[in-house]
Known about the structure:
Elements: E1 3-9, H1 11-14, H2 25-35, E2 40-44, H3 55-63, E3 69-73, H4 76-80, H5 85-100, E4 105-109, H6 125-144, E5 149-150, H7 158-163, H8 177-201
Parallel strand pairs: 1-2, 1-3, 3-4, 4-5
Helix pairs in contact: 2-8, 3-5, 5-6
Amino acid sequence: MTLKFxxxxxxxxxxxxxxxxxxxVAQRLSADLTAHDLPNEVRVFAVPGAQSRDxxxxxxxxxxxxxxxxxxIIGANDLTRFVPPEQAAAQLAEAVRRLRxxxxxxxxxxxxDLSVVPWVPPQMRAVVRAGSQLLHDAQSRAVLAQGARVADxxxxxxxxxxxxxGLFSADRFHPSSAGYAVIAGALAATVREAATAARxxxxxxxx
Length: 207
């Protein structure tokens, strides 16, 4: 069985900043699944600049394809636009709920730690990190309650981004191809776990 693997979310989910399509999170994870005997077709429904409120439209498009596996990467734009954490988390939870209602296995990568972004002034980093953690934790609680898996790259993998400018693209905000390799590496095991569950469930989403 070839799994239908849908990717939703923001510019990180889309792959903005990568030098080549093959370097994006979606393509790296798809290749990893194939290498682990989990054949798949990946489609990206993510939109650069998206906030959690924008997931509704993405999920609507994605559900028409009937995916068995979904990855959602969201949160950075909620942080930069000061969306209240509980509001953003509720919008994300609704997206997960809709996917899970069709039998789709869902992995969520919550908000990243924006304090490591080069343009954040040193004196603001503690505040930005605290805000990132609040959203990250609210998202994690909300999606776990809906039966999704949490794959944490935002807070746990931030140390590398903090010390290696090469993990950022030229705009000093989005990851570079090397940065996407780090992110995909942090997500891969959880995505494989979800893909294995989707394959073994032997049910048709929406059926």
